[in-house]
Amino acid sequence: MTLALHPSETVRTVEVRVRGRVQGVGFRPMVWRLAQDCGLHGDVRNDNEGVLIRLRGDDARIGQLVAELQASPPPLAQISRIEVSPFAGAIDTGFRIVPSAPGVARTEIAPDAAVCPACVAEISDPRARRYRYPFTNCTHCGPRLSIVHGVPYDRAVTTMAAFPMCDDCTGEYADPSDRRFHAEPIACPACGPKLRLVRFDGGEVPSFPQAVDDIAAAAMLIALGEIVAIKGLGGYQLACDATQPEVVARLRRLKRREAKPFALMARDLDMIRRYCAVGELEEAALRAREAPIVLLKSSGAGKLPEAVAPGHATLGFMLPATPLHVVLFEAFDRPMVMTSGNVSDAPQVTDDLEAATLLAGIAPYALVHDRIIANRVDDSVVRMMDNTMRVIRRARGHAPAALALPSGFEAASEILAFGPEMKATFCLLTEGRAVLSQHQGDLEDVATYDDYRRNLSLYGDPFAHRPEVFACDLHPDYLSAKLARQRAGEERLPLVEVQHHHAHLASCLAENGRARKAPPVLGIVLDGLGYGSDGAVWGGEFLFGDYSAVTRLGCLPSVAMPGGAQASREPWRNLYAHLVAAIGKREFVDDFSGVSFAPLLAAKPCATLDAMMASGTNAPLASSCGRLFDAVAAALDLSFARQAYEGEAASRLEACVCDKTLRNEHPALAYRFGLVTHPRKPAVFDLAPMWRALLTDLAGGVGVPVIAARFHKGLAAGLADMAEMLSGRDCGGARFDTVALSGGCFQNRILFEETSRNLAARGFVVLSHSAVPANDGGIALGQAVVAAAQMIETGADRRKGH
């Protein structure tokens, strides 16, 4: 952005409009300081469009201030654009911050940010006023989304409104030289929220003479083997000593979380390095203001109990994100399990009474406080893949940060996309940006669905979003899609139903800034299940197209899922169905009856499955990559009978891969996937060569890690082979040189990296996810941009004269 200069003038009065994430991040104090340095007069205020600055002064000085704002905004700010226009009104001498102006909201709410180094130093200093105070914050850190009720972002519309500032805090708040100048959540022990250690049953808390406060007492309880509930930033957490196997096992049993890995928290990087390898980018992610859970290779000298992450080769660690956690670890020299405060897959508890009811059976003790959690926000999860940090779960620290839309979407309607059913998120399209909600969970859980509906209203109000178009998944039974159809009928608004895998592809394109009118690409979309445009179940797709439309050029073969949804939970069903479909029951019995899993399979009701598949009764066909992974994991007895959580079989298969085989073994030993072409149908993989090679290796005593590596390598090569073959076709008059990778299966690091490498070796440009999850957590963005593109191209959107 450049400021238009008028050579004949040396003094001007202008209005500077700054849009984006500019409230609650120390933006006004920065403007005040820059104006003082530049000798400019005027004022700055928050309003419902962002920040408004009025300036009088030398042309060059005004340009200097604007350039400085653009180049070096406050750490938590994100500027979408700056507009400078002449101002005809009078401007008083001096520069001041004025009260926020009311109006219609068009700004952004900042995500919660991890405690900054300055605040950490303060709470660690016995001489400081906020020594060990668990609600310390400043303009560079602390709560945002989790405490806010609306915009403009002022204390009055946060849960901090219940805590009037003391004289000392008022002085800091009003002092432009203080880093707490206009920090809305400002607090101290004299005036802010209070924390206490309680027993959920009302009983007496043990006395620890050596504990300086309730946080220290909680740490001692954890060291003694207790599970303690902690009221965190965006919800309750359950904490215990991660090094005590019996305590971790007890937490699993009481929380009813059979096998899914627990999140871990450590005091510092040195503690994490006892157990995990931490690379440079992983260290940066751990230290980042988002403070996510980072999935790390568990290769340190120390070993944590198997119950922390059963069957996994990675551990999910995070550093303390709040002052409470920093103080908790001050005298605790071991990692803690720090998992969501809930039972099974229910939403994280935020309400104190609900916590006392639901969590008392898990954690006898709790660290509670009197600040209300306005908005539930879980921890974000990231993972390093192909030298890029990639978001697996987008929540605290990331949501609701807006994403800029690619060029060509300037005429987009105000759109609300309702997202998927699992890993639920929704997306608002407004003013050239996409606002993707935080991760909310599985909508089949009643409490999660209620929370999802509440959040739809929550986001609509602060962003003043008034949808003109709804978008949803094509699936007839998704709860999110049913709600979209209901509201579209009630509000008489257009509804765009978007095929699941098209939404995955569009999400990847949008995240990568692919212009709306850019040439079509090939999308390789691999996941568990999605409703296809032909009414069948899809999950291993090669889609050629763009935002507006796609053509299915290829897919994995459609294999029966005997038992329907039960097949997603019991991998042996997929194994049997795949063997029957690929090589037939007779060949398996004749040639491979000696493999290790044969007795296990013989004990199952396979005759019943035969009847189901023959009649098509409760045995839908699915081209699912997720179910293929389940089948292979079952064959290797990594997850044969039942999955304790979605994706467990695939995770265990990835975890056991032999790195040496992956890196060094000749590619010819990887399992081959055949390609079958049809003149008027999608090309299809032939899985028979892969299954014969895998079964031969298994029967010959080849190790499971080697087989797992050969499967991953072979599948990745097969995906690239299919892409290369399809690029030679006449795809509707256009060829492609770009391939976009999306879908939950590409959260598998080995599959993703091997596929990317194979595609690049064949000359393709590869697009992939980093800021938006590749799994279903990202498809709401895809639904939104597909709906926008279709409305623009059909001429349905004329709001802006396009």
From TrEMBL:
Sequence ranges assigned to domain Acylphosphatase-like in this UniProt record: 13-99
The protein's role, per its UniProt record: Involved in the maturation of [NiFe] hydrogenases. Along with HypE, it catalyzes the synthesis of the CN ligands of the active site iron of [NiFe]-hydrogenases. HypF functions as a carbamoyl transferase using carbamoylphosphate as a substrate and transferring the carboxamido moiety in an ATP-dependent reaction to the thiolate of the C-terminal cysteine of HypE yielding a protein-S-carboxamide.
InterPro entries given in the database record: Acylphosphatase-like_dom (IPR001792), Acylphosphatase-like_dom_sf (IPR036046), Acylphosphatase_CS (IPR017968), Carbamoyltrans_HypF-like (IPR051060), Carbamoyltransferase_HypF (IPR004421), DHBP_synth_RibB-like_a/b_dom (IPR017945), HypF_C (IPR041440), HypF_C_2 (IPR055128)
Class of this enzyme: ligase
Top-level division of the source organism's lineage: Bacteria
Entry keywords, A to Z: Hydrolase, Ligase, Metal-binding, Zinc, Zinc-finger
Annotated pathway: Protein modification; [NiFe] hydrogenase maturation
Coiled coil region boundaries: none
Family, similarity comment: Belongs to the carbamoyltransferase HypF family.
Protein name, per record: Carbamoyltransferase HypF
Active site (catalytic residues): R28, N46
Gene3D superfamilies attached to this UniProt entry: 3.30.110.120, 3.30.420.360, 3.30.420.40, 3.90.870.50
Domain YrdC-like, residue spans: 212-397
Reactions it catalyzes: C-terminal L-cysteinyl-[HypE protein] + carbamoyl phosphate + ATP + H2O = C-terminal S-carboxamide-L-cysteinyl-[HypE protein] + AMP + phosphate + diphosphate + H(+); an acyl phosphate + H2O = a carboxylate + phosphate + H(+)
Single GO term (MF): ligase activity
EC annotation from Swiss-Prot or TrEMBL: 6.2.-.-
